[in-house]
Amino acid sequence: MKNVRYIAVNDCVDTANKNNDIAALKNVMNEFYSRDNSRKIRSSIRARAKAGLYRCSYAPLGYRKAPDNHNKLIVDEETAWIIKRIFEYANAGMGSHKIASSLRKEQVPCPSWWQYTRGEKDYSQRFSDPTNKYEWSHTVIRGIIGNPVYLGHTIMCKHETVFKVGLLKKTPDADRIRVDNTHKPLVSQEMFDNANAKILSRKREDTSGNVSIFSGLIKCGTCGKAMCQRYWGRDRHRIFVCNTYAKNTQRCTDHRIFYDDLYDAVLADIQYHAQLAYEDRDKAVALAIRMNDKAEGSRAKSSEGKLKQARKRYDEVTRMFDRLYEDSLSGRISNDNFTRLVDKYQAE
Question: Which of 28, 117, 180, 341 is deepest in the core (most CB within 10 A)?
Answer without folding.
Answer: 341
